[in-house]
Amino acid sequence: MRIGIEMAIQFARIEFLRRSEGGDSCRKAAYNARTIVKNEQTKIRYNFFTKQDVEKAVKDIPDLIAREQLVQKVLSSNRILELYHDDGESSKYFTTIEVRNEETRIIRIANKINNQVYYNDIYNLKSDIEGLANVSEEQKQALRHILLSTSGVRVLRGRAGTGKSYVLIKAHKLATNRGQKVIGLAPTHKAVSELKSKGYTEVYTVKGFLYNRKKIFMKGSLIVVDEAGMVGTKAYAELFRVVRNNNCQLILAGDEKQLASIERGGMFEMLSNNFGSHVLIDIRRQSENWSREAATKFAESNILSGITLLRQNKCVKFDNTLQDSISKLIYDWSLSKFKLHEKLVITVRNKDVDILNSSIRSLLKANGTLQGTEYRRSIAGRKESYMAGDRIVFQKSDKDLQIQNSEFATLTSVNKNEFVAKTDAGKEVSFDSVKYNLNMAMQVLFIRLRELL
């Protein structure tokens, strides 16, 4: 659900009740709208929305007339703005005055940062870039853009596999070798760990950096934000104020089509359009031409062509029925020579998740991988079973346990009071099985395409 809908519905609900006679259908619409406002707070949202988004948001209101009236009230509210293309044609997108004002404030601050002129050893940095080995010309051009620009805001874009991370590694090394302090930021703990593993010595989550900003010496620093497409609008607003006040330079690296922030987002694409960007195009993660082409097709949302390439190269199979597909998948999984932690099954529906997990766990019990007493628990109406040997994935970060959201592990001990697990990084952790959010890792409900390519 895109941002603005919950705010717009709230405006419309108030107006709707004020003009109505308070009939039963009106009360139902108001109640459901209020419920939608509350429930939609946790979903992925953007700075804009469509009429279809509003219709989807109010679809549970039983009274058709009341529902249609509410949609019209949303779109005709004096707080809603329709967005147009440069040629004056309607884009069919809407936003709110509040959102647009916030975006304007962010761009205003970003302009002030961008207009600050920097000359940090440009000539020596240029020579350093030219002398790099094992770096493509495209990557050198990216380094010139983010390190030699005299503007305060530099944007690096590229889909998964194009080498953004490699460029950021080189940028950190080049800048620090020339005496520049570099601070790495990312929206998630997992992304922060990636920066650390690649040589960044001072790294924070965006949230942690902003919270502790008074304790961090950053005057004149080069601040690098990885996975910038996942940073929410409010975080950008605060980050830009901090960057401006400390006379810092800013590099934003990401992909606007990546999984967005759970907070209201969409600023990365807007900043790219306003300040320009260098775009990495060549897919470097795949070694074979066909696999690079497939990755490009998926990145361009040309799904059919991408799947066709996978099928031609015997990387995907099709079956006549869902049951046939599930049965053959389980059979192939059982014959696979890969280790347990190297195998992952992906599906969409919860009921398929349960079927696959149950079937695969039966195989693991039979071959002795799962051992000991089986512990069962019920979470949100779903029954889950765990044994020593089960693969799990943590669904939230925990500073005390020093684990991160989406981190994988293998259970080594299970009882009703405590689970003990060994993470893939080799760390042993114990936790309360009832209170902690985790999921079976043999099968994951959703996974980003970038992790497969």
From TrEMBL:
Gene3D superfamilies: P-loop containing nucleotide triphosphate hydrolases (3.40.50.300). InterPro entries: Coronavir_polyprotein_1ab, P-loop_NTPase. SUPFAM superfamilies: P-loop containing nucleoside triphosphate hydrolases (SSF52540). This is Conjugal transfer protein TraA. The lineage of its organism: Bacteria, Pseudomonadati, Pseudomonadota, Alphaproteobacteria, Rickettsiales.
